[in-house]
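EI: anyone free to look at a 337-residue chain?
SC: sure, send it
EI:
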Amino acid sequence: MTSDVNEYELQSHIEDLQRALKAAHLRELRAKTRTNDLVEAVYKAAKDAAIGQPLIKPTVYTPPKRSKQKSEVALLHATDWQLGKKTVSFGITTLDDRMKQVVEKMLTITEIQRADHPVNDAVILFGGDMVEGLGIFPGQVYEVEAYLYQQLFEAARIMKYIVASVASNFKNVKVVCEYGNHGRLGRKGEMPANDNIDAIAYGIVAEGCAHLKNVTFQMSADWYQIFKIGNYNGLLVHGDEIKSFGGNTPAFGILRKVSAWSSGVIESFHDCYMGHWHTPMSLTMSNGGRIFVTGSPESHNEYAREFVAAVGRPSQRLHFIDPDKARVTSEHVLWLE
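SC: here you go
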């Protein structure tokens, strides 16, 4: 009797489960049906709406007429060549080739700009460390392929090529020169800072380009240069004025020092250009001014790989300046790999 009761209860439980499963399937089917109906209704509504829209007629872009085209000025920042250093991928020949690339890229981008507006004038910034120098750090003599005499005249030769090439493609060219720390003569502090291979090379270049009547030079014994492009005032420094701790590019130190300069310590300027750190970078000051750090055409710097744990890509910098509004209108890092 007990066995029959248990069997009856079991059969009753199974029937309950079957009814519950059937009800669940029914609810799922209804939900799917509602979902499918909704999706189908949305697609149908979208299709009907699209058919009801008027056809879009294609238009041909017509550039606006420019009755008063504003002229801009090309600015090339060439710095930190380290000419004389020898690595597995860099030497005097490599530098020569890469700076020819710089000129080619500058002229190509300038022609693109000229398709829209005049670019008649150019400014060249030579920012220092154009030579590797000697006696800058222990063991340096084992990393150079040329001593000071050859470094001096090879650097001057390449700079003269750049100046002459740019002068052939622009109405007026201004060359602004600042020396770096690698060009110093003797140990640091032994001689005045401006007794410098960079400075001597700039003098040779200026003399060698004296016949180019559309070229002017700006240089002095100061650690900085303020240059003017219309209403635009630029500050050129080498960059070794800012100290580094641990070998890293001191972005905060750069920002703090240049901001301090802009507070009236030196003549007023809109933007600052520097090299030294071999890494292209830009920073914005609280007054809206910009700091442009330009890279180096050098590659495979063993010191940087070991001490800083970084490998910089060879580069230089090209800008275009609006002389009336006193601002940079376009920025170009010229990669030289």
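EI: Residues 1-58 form one domain.
SC: 👍
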